[in-house]
């Protein structure tokens, strides 16, 4: 397991930032903590800071909603597979194979995004299974909901736009703007 260094800059017992060992990645939540701390440490007007923190809050809210959507969709897929297997519309081998992939995804449902390899395997399994067309379409639509990160990406794009505008207007120094853009890019790459 990666051991990330937790940084408490002001000694209040709350982690203000994270540092990953060389070659390791920070989690999405750790990156957002670093981004929030960077904004809080800026020497800018409170109104400007509040606007940036609001954008970060929007990103965090969209991620939380995506986690809920993932959890709900995985539960719906699992229930649909069990129900259809019970009715004999999905053979036992296919149901077991799909259940195994679902169990792996459910085990990491709090992670954004879910493992793309597992999602692709689930889609491939659904596509290659002998299922009624309506059932296949229904399952694939639920899987697509899990993959859709458009609202998170839209919130990230809005944050990048605000940081870029503040940098262009001189409200942030070039170094401050670049640091925030780099952190936002790291968040985007973590998705």
What would your notes on this structure say?
This protein is mainly α and 191 residues long. The chain has seven helices and two strands, in the order ββααααααα. A two-stranded antiparallel ribbon has the order 1-2. Helix 2 runs antiparallel to helix 6 (150-168) and helix 6 runs antiparallel to helix 7. It is elongated, with a radius of gyration of 21 Å.
Strand order in the sheet with the most strands: 1-2
Query: How many helices?
Result: 7
Number of strands: 2
Q: Strand content of the residues, in percent? A: under 5%
Euclidean distance between termini CA atoms: 20 Å
Q: Which stretches of 5+ consecutive residues score pLDDT under 50? A: none
Please give the share of residues in helix.
over 70%
Report the average pLDDT across residues.
86
Q: How many whole angstroms does the radius of gyration measure?
A: 21 Å
Strand and helix order:
EEHHHHHHH
Shape, please?
elongated
In a few lines, what is going on in this structure?
The chain has 191 residues and is mainly alpha-helical. Helix content is 70%, strand content 3%.
